[in-house]
Design goal:
The structure is a single chain. The protein contains 2 helices and no strands. The protein is mainly alpha-helical.
Length: about 70
C-alpha cells in the first residue's frame, strides 16, 4: 500500500497483500475484495476522529483460569 494513508487501497495492493499473507484471491474476485477492503479502510479511518483520552482500556482476552 502507498505510504500516503489518504489513498484508498488499490487492486495492485490487494494482489500484493494476498500473496504476502498467503491468501488465494482469484482474479475474478480482486475487484470485489478491493472494494470491500477500501470500504473497511474508510470506516476504520472514522475511528481516528474519536476522542478516546478519557476511555479506559479493557482487556480483550482473559487470562487462563478466569
Amino acid at each position: 500500500m502507498d505510504s500516503d494513508l489518504t489513498d484508498e487501497i488499490t487492486r495492485e495492493d490487494v494482489m500484493r497483500l494476498s500473496k504476502i499473507v498467503g491468501v488465494n484471491v482469484y482474479e475474478t474476485e480482486i475487484d470485489e475484495v478491493t472494494y470491500r477492503l477500501a470500504a473497511l479502510q474508510r470506516e476504520l479511518r472514522k475511528l481516528d476522529n474519536l476522542d478516546l483520552r478519557d476511555v479506559e482500556a479493557i482487556p480483550l482476552f482473559h487470562r487462563r483460569g478466569e
